[in-house]
Amino acid sequence: MLTLKSMLSAGAFGLLALGGTLHTDAARAAGDAKVGARVYAENCAECHSTKEGKNKKGPSLFQGFGRKAGAVGDFAYSDALKASGKSWTEAELDAYLTLPKKAIPGGKMKFDGLPEAKDRADVIAYLATLK
Predict the structure, then answer these.
(1) Class of domain 31-128 (CATH, top level)
(2) Domain locations in the chain?
(3) pTM score
(4) Which of 49, 77, 79, 121 could form a disulfide linkage to 54, CB 3.0–4.6 angstroms apart?
(5) ∠36-79-52 over CA atoms, to 5°?
(6) What one-character-per-residue DSSP string does 38-49 give?
């Protein structure tokens, strides 16, 4: 039989779990584009340009925020990315930047991911400015 103490403990655990989810969403919403530009320069710029029409090893990320994955016409994407049906929303970018190979198995991006939620939030905020 459930006691009041066990029900309160379960409720507190549930609130902690919910709080963790809210914190992750808040971290993304609170991204700093200026810091994101630095994180981008350190982790992404070798392979991705932010200039319109300038691809490198990876496609240009100019106006990439909100764009359908695999939509830069003159870039040779993997079949997996083209077939993903994804659009680069905040949530999709966060998942992809966490572990690209898990988010799109069979993709050809060689990057292992950004493990820190704050770094991802900052990069996402920066990408949103590339208009």
Answers:
(1) mainly alpha
(2) 31-128
(3) 0.76
(4) 49
(5) 40
(6) HHHHHHTTTT--
